[in-house]
Amino acid sequence: MFETVTVDEALSKGRKMVIYPITAIILGAFGFGTYLFVQFNMSSMPMYIGVALGVALGWLYWSFVITKWRIWAFDNVRNVHELKKKAIRAGLIWPDNSFFERSEIRTSSEKEKWLSLQKKFNQPDVFLDDYSIPVQTEIHYSKKKGIIDLVWIIPIFGFGVYYLISNGITSLIGYLILAMPLLYLYLDYKIISNRKSQIILNNEGMGTVNVPLYKWTEIHDEKTLTEFAGGKYSRSYLVYIYPNGNEKLQIDNFDIQPKELEHLMDIYRGRSEQKTNSHKLS
Hints:
The chain is of the alpha+beta class.
């Protein structure tokens, strides 16, 4: 069979086929519970039941549909190792032998098909270089993000000045209002003025402001991850393991997006492995 589906195309279909419907199921169940609560002046219990029901239905939907996507994707994509790694990152599938991976519901024919697809993992992926990426990339703090913060810092500062003028220069509340934007202004200044490279990637390896550059053969499990810090707030990190340690560097204020950073790591590691393999053959 001709394998013409790219990894990104398979992941895009997976999000449409799996993640988006699950999100709709959970939100729909919660919305229905909220409707009952508001419309009929019921207790808050329907909302909690709606959340639990939504999660249960979403999990059941995932258990059936993820198998269908998994078989289609790994059957039609050439680079199955890359697909597996990125599908786990995207939250489409789970690592082998994990609880959630074992909860996938497969028919007998689907089990046989998936077993036959395991042979594809015996082949190394075909590396496709991105020639737009230079030999080395240096990542810095983002000036743009620091300047954008001024959009909300300046009005708060102005309100603090107005409060002091209106209530007297001895007003403690006025100074407290001024303190917050001044603190953020100082932090933004440090970000904008700091031009030291925070991450360096090249064909040989990777390093950060905290960790010296190590070769790709010495680095393992490099990836970006997002952690939610309560409510809707989240933080993104670069994490990887190096000899005798591991790095976890927050990247929210850098001049790169997590997906772009992962692409860079894939390309630079691929170039390194390609060079190593060519030396072995010569």
